[in-house]
Fold this protein.
Amino acid sequence: MSDAWDKAKGLADKHASTGGIFVRLANDGDKVVGAFLGDPLPREVHWTGERYEECTGAENKCSQCAESKRPSLRVSMNFYVPAEKAVKVIEGGSTWFKDLLKCRDKYGLDRWTFEVERHGASGDPKTSYTILPDERLTDEQRGHLAGLQLHDLQKVVSGGGEAGGDFSSYDKTGAAGQPIDPRVATELVGRLKVLPRDAVDTFLKKFGVQRVRDLKASDEKAARAFVEALEGKGQKSGGEIDPFA
Ligand SMILES: [Zn+2]
């Protein structure tokens, strides 16, 4: 255990750069144990059926509000997961956040690890989450946690900029079907990266997504075929070895 905590810092950076930054609880009964770190980032969002979009407010002519869609609260927190030796980002809605506040008052978020469990099958709109204290942290563990580098939540959730480009939200699946396997997405990104930039744009446009990670699992076959077609155009920058092959 102590070894895991010691190595956390460097590995957290490594994990951040390979994606998978969000805690994913995809199915009923999925759970994760970790420590909440830093301050929460609350934001008002609209679920478009594909993704969460920031609500800019009716007074600022938010297009979703204009369609009488009510925004909902999403709260993001940094969350250290000992089993993965990584600082990740965990998100929840207003009920989840109220539970988190209760845990904060009763136990102290910096004194315990907590177990977050999903109740509800994939795609179930009534899905809820419970947060329970798991283990009391030792002073040594608390010291390590205090030294961890946290993610810039605003940057991560907006998906903007280089760092946020490939991130996707953990329960984004919603009504929109299963997302593509992250390993497949990583492979496709690797292959697209050695192609000229316009090949990537063509690919994203073809599938109507902004990021490869936004593809659906059902698109995998077509996506692979399309990448192969792009590669076949002889646009390879030459001599590059595909590390994912
Ligand atoms: Zn709005």
User: Anything to note?
Assistant: The chain has ten helices and six strands. The two ends are 34 Å apart (CA to CA).
